[in-house]
Specification:
Strand order of the largest sheet: 1-4-5-6-3
Shape: globular
Order of helices and strands: EHHEEEEEEEH
Strand content: 35-45%
Oligomer: single chain
Number of helices: 3
Distance between the termini: 17 Å
CATH class: Alpha Beta
CATH topology: Thiol Ester Dehydrase, Chain A
Number of strands: 8
Amino acid sequence: MNKPDFEHDIRVTWGDCDPAQVAYTARIPWFALDAINAWWEHYFNGDGWFQMELDLNIGTPFVHMSLDFRSPITPRHRLMCEVYPLRLGGSSIRFAVNGRQDGVLCFEGQFVCVFTIADEFKPQPAPERIRQVVEPLLRP
């Protein structure tokens, strides 16, 4: 497997797990969203969702999330979440997030956000600043 362009590691803890000793199902989207926020911070000089919303007036509410579970997630290993953009539309962005532990694929998901003028909660086209960074990173 080639090294991902961007990978965010998550420390899965005992508190993330249910009595079956695997991560609660509800934690898995949280892990993926944390990884997407880290992707934004990595490519936009530390500006994640908080800064985009409050400082840049760019909202990115989700309109779609899908996850396929492949293997249980436990506290035994770091959860390595590979994040990359799949599509940049006129006013939306689709991310892929693949979570692995110890090289084993645990989940794969797709997440779609739309761009809004944050303080008006109205749609807007993908900002040019974002388009310039994202387009070279798109994968089929």
